[in-house]
From TrEMBL:
Subunit comment: Homodimer.
Database matches in CDD domains: pyridoxal_pyridoxamine_kinase
Name by which UniProt lists this protein: Pyridoxal kinase PdxY
Pfam family, one: Phos_pyr_kin
Residue numbers binding ATP: D110, E147
GO BP field: pyridoxal 5'-phosphate salvage
Residues reported to bind substrate: S8, D219
Origin superkingdom: Bacteria
InterPro entries: PM/HMP-P_kinase-1 (IPR013749), PyrdxlKinase (IPR004625), Pyridoxal_kinase_PdxY (IPR023685), Ribokinase-like (IPR029056)
Function: Pyridoxal kinase involved in the salvage pathway of pyridoxal 5'-phosphate (PLP). Catalyzes the phosphorylation of pyridoxal to PLP.
Family the UniProt entry places it in: Belongs to the pyridoxine kinase family. PdxY subfamily.
Sequence ranges assigned to domain Pyridoxamine kinase/Phosphomethylpyrimidine kinase in this UniProt record: 80-258
Organism: Bosea lathyri
Length: 282
């Protein structure tokens, strides 16, 4: 399986492609990474060095891949942190080129905009671009609760609100939605939920909430969900596997007291998670 992964890259630590590429490779996927930015570290540190690339660079790399005659072998495109709306347009054009070469290819958009603690952490224009162009073009989207609320203008207090927001998003295009870090009135204080919906139904998985605050878990879980969905064609199965792997990864990260997720030293969690969480139909 070949996946084109277009997102941010950091030299130190694990967010964007530096969080997503290795877990996919560990699952046996041949990943074609294209970086939207090259930063020293993730922006959660408050300061970083490096550059945001531009749409032209993405187009050029896509031209080169097309020249190799391999786009028809691309099974899916994964996008994440975009850097600028100009890069967003180049990503959507890459998706079109892949779909033209392989009509069965699917596009998974992780609409990286922000989160509950930090608010919006992307450049102006990106939230609108995600809502108006990227999400409608996607087959699968993987927002966290904050992003789902922002994309749909629906405040989520209950599981019923979450269902409404997911359906509102599905009405705009993507038929599969996975919601991360879902905390509703029904979620116990010591737990964290995730939810996934496809044409077959809706599922929720609940794990203990760990005393860690890290970046990059969302990028890893979107990549894992995408791979398992492509293989199994089931949001329920993909949700169970992705959430179990990320729980194991974060548990090991917490035990080590690390500031960055242990993508490399806890890599077995991607293949054989130490604990299995089973989604329930909702
Ligand atoms: N403190 C935590 N305890 C347990 N699981 C967590 C914790 N933080 C994140 N996760 C897991 O990682 C997933 C993705 O993290 P999240 O923070 O939602 O992504 P993002 O970085 O995109 O906001 C969550 O759905 C949850 O399963
Ligand atoms: C460069 C970069 N990419 C991606 C992300 C997204 O990380 P997360 O998976 O925590 O949403 C961040 C968050 O700080 C970032 O700074
Ligand atoms: Mg995210």
């Amino acid at each position: 399986m070949n996946i084109l992964s277009i997102q941010s890259h950091v030299a130190f630590g694990h967010v964007g492609n530096a969080s997503a590429v290795f877990p996919m490779q560990r699952l046996g996927v041949d990943v074609w990474p294209i970086h939207t930015v090259q930063f020293s570290n993730h922006t959660g540190y408050g300061s970083w060095k490096g550059r945001v690339f531009d749409g032209g660079m993405i187009d050029e790399v896509m031209d080169g891949i097309a020249e190799r005659g391999v786009l028809s072998a691309c099974d899916g495109v994964l996008s994440g942190y975009m850097g600028s709306a100009d890069i967003g347009h180049a990503i959507l054009s890459a998706v079109e080129r892949v779909r033209a070469a392989n009509p069965r290819a699917i596009y998974c958009c992780d609409p990286v905009i922000g989160d509950v603690g930090r608010g919006v952490f992307v450049r102006p224009g990106i939230p609108e671009f995600m809502r108006e162009q990227a999400v409608p073009a996607a087959d699968i989207v993987t927002p966290n609760q904050f992003e789902l609320e922002l994309l749909t203008d629906i405040e989520i207090r209950t599981l019923a609100d979450a269902h409404r927001a997911v359906e509102a998003l599905r009405d705009t295009g993507p038929k599969v939605v996975m919601v991360t870090s879902l905390v509703t009135e029904e979620t116990p204080d010591d737990s964290i939920d995730m939810m996934a919906v496809d044409a077959k139904g809706a599922w929720r998985v609940r794990t203990p909430k760990l005393d860690v605050s890290v970046n990059g878990a969302g990028d890893a879980i979107a990549a894992l969900f995408f791979v398992h969905y492509l293989r199994e064609q089931s949001a329920a199965v993909a949700l169970g596997r992705a959430s179990s792997s990320v729980y194991g990864l974060l548990k090991r990260t917490k035990e080590a007291g690390a500031r960055e997720i242990l993508t490399v030293s806890a890599q077995d969690e991607f293949v054989t998670p130490s604990e299995d969480f089973t989604p329930e139909a909702i």
